[in-house]
Amino acid sequence: MDKTLIIGYGSPIRGDDAIGPLAVERLVERGLPAGVEAIARHVLTAELVTELVGRERAIFLDAAAGGEPGAVQVHRLEPDADAHSTMAHFLDPSELLAWCRQLYGQAPEAYLITATGACFDYAHCQLSPVAEAALERLLEQVERVWVG
């Protein structure tokens, strides 16, 4: 099993919300180093817990809706057993980590890297110019985190 799992998530039909899956696509095209796996999802679901178990590090990539468009931020995540999602469609990354810890006794070191979007209108995998510019900075942050 690879040590690091990158999960890019977001809706591919909601403009800049697609930045997580598109970031994964670019990382895979460039080639991932040994020990790093990347997957794209529309949303975070409970099934991802089994993908996270046994990993040393998880990096979640997502669009942010608030703040300065184009801003890229890195957040260290901790399991959050108090997060309450509906379990119907999506989970928070910290909630996924809490599920890992609760079910398997451990959770990977985890980070959330976001890029603030400018437009979330319908557009299939089409980023705004601001988000497209932020994508490269987001990828730079991913590489910094996986290098450690």
From TrEMBL:
InterPro entries per record: Pept_HybD-like_dom_sf, Peptidase_A31
SUPFAM superfamilies reported for this sequence: HybD-like
The UniProt record lists the keyword Ion transport: no
BP GO annotations: protein processing
Keywords: Hydrolase, Protease
Gene Ontology molecular-function annotations: endopeptidase activity; enzyme activator activity
Protein name: Hydrogenase maturation protease
Organism: Allochromatium vinosum (strain ATCC 17899 / DSM 180 / NBRC 103801 / NCIMB 10441 / D)
